[in-house]
Design a protein that fits this description.
Layout lengths: L15 E5 L2 E4 L4 E4 L2 H4 L8 H13 L10 H12 L5 E5 L2 H18 L7 E5 L8 H7 L2 H4 L9 E4 L4 H7 L4 E6 L2 E2 L5 E2 L2 H14 L2 E5 L14 H4 L5 E4 L10 E5 L1 H4 L15 H14 L4 H22 L4 E7 L2 E6 L3 H10 L2 E2 L1 E3 L3 E4 L7 H27 L2
Helix pairs in contact: 2-11, 3-11, 12-14, 13-14
Bound molecules: pyridoxal-5'-phosphate.
The site of pyridoxal-5'-phosphate (PLP) has 15 residues, from helix 4.
Length: about 400
Amino acid sequence: MTNKILPTYARTNVTFDHGDGCELVATNGDRYLDFGAGIAVNSLGHGHPLLVEAIQNQAAKLMHVSNLYKIDGQERLAERLCEHTFADKAFFANSGAEANECAVKMARKYQFAAGKPERYRIITFAGGFHGRTLAMIAAGGQAKHLEGFGPKVDGFDQVPFGDSEALKSLISHETAALMIEPIQGEGGINSADVDFLKELRSLCEEHGLLLIFDEVQTGVGRTGVLYSYEQYGVEPDILTTAKGLGGGFPVGACLATDEVAYPMVAGSHGSTFGGNPLAMAAANAVLDVVLEPGFLEEIREKGLVLKQKLASVTDQFPEVFDMVRGEGLLLGLHAKVPPQDVVSACFDEKLLCVPAGDNVVRILPPLIATTKEFDQAIAAIERAAGTISEKMKKEQSTL
Ligand SMILES: *Cc1c(COP(=O)(O)O)cnc(C)c1O
């Protein structure tokens, strides 16, 4: 392995050569079932023919053109995202963090245009994750993400996830917006209560604040609806989406209502690459599949099946797991051992999954995964849990 890469990731010693549906094939020929999906990115799995074809065709035609010109794919994607959500406007970025930067800028600009420039602070929630830019590490508020990077960007305050009393006491004449993940992903698949999100909506009405949903991880069908706010019956003013949107091609978007987006005029924001034809072709191809009649419904059904199967694993290995969480195919196993131990043991069983905060192992299959692949994954998790359980017993007997 080269030491020329900035070592900001603790990488597993495996190199994947190619992908095939829900599987990744290593350079030595080993096949892994990919239930991490690049952290909720490879929504259509690997090598999906429609996605590959869309990217190939677009690459041959036109990869990049400046946002100084009209871009057909961008217009089409904006139309579709707005048609299928609460939103009236879309801004295209290249990542989740960038989409969130747009959301925060838009919220502040809205308050500014409303004659309230003092309203610039954003209240976020402990355990949240919004990306790694300087502003977004301030929004996430995690000490380990902030340490050593200079003064924390001003304007972000956290309250505990679900704590409406703490929230109410923090809202001030300087508050512009509340920003929350309806289901915290990196934080450990923590779903907000419906009542809590409804309260956020009414607090926003009461105090003239905007509600921002960070659906970077929950979006594009992951939870069984296009965006998880639909399940909650609570509409945000601004929503961000990225990860699964391009099915592996980098793309993000910030969606908003006209009521909120109007001050974002020419020159107020921009991105060289954001909304480029290639990214738009990828995202439009992903939507072709996800918006196909019945596709989202199938995710909900498959999600229930997988959740039940995972619940039976927790019953079988209560010393290793104690709970299954999540919606659709955004699932988490709450572990009683370090989640990385479970992820490593699953890796040894040729199953990829992803650790998260709060001792959770994320199970994020491609949205196209079949129940047969679920069974394969469950068998691998059972073997992994068996190994961990044996090890625990041995350790206990030597104490
Ligand atoms: C991954 C993630 C981000 C950051 O996305 P990047 O593309 O890595 O910038 C932001 N918010 C949530 C909820 C995420 O899961």
